[in-house]
Amino acid sequence: MPKLADDLSMTLNTRLNTLSPSKIRAFDAKASTIPGIIKLTIGEPDLNTPDHVKKAAIADIEANDSHYAPQAGKPELLKAFSNYLKRSINVDYDPESEICVTVGATGALNDVFMAILNPGDKILVPTPVWALYFQLIKLTGAIPVQIDTSKDGFVLTPEHLEEVLNGEGKGAKAIILTDPSNPTGRVYPEETLKGLAKVITKYQLFSISDEIYAELVYDNNVHHSLSEYIPERNILISGLSKAYAMTGWRLGFIAAPSQIMQSIRKINAFLVTSVTDNVQAAAIEALNNGQDDPLKSRKIYEDRLIFMKKGLEDLGFELSTPQGAFYIFAKIPDTFGQDDVAFANELASKAKVGVTPGRYFGKGGEGYVRLSYASSTEDLQEALRRIKKYVDNI
Ligand code: PMP
Question: Is 43 touching ligand 1 by the criterion CB < 6 Å?
Answer without folding.
Answer: yes
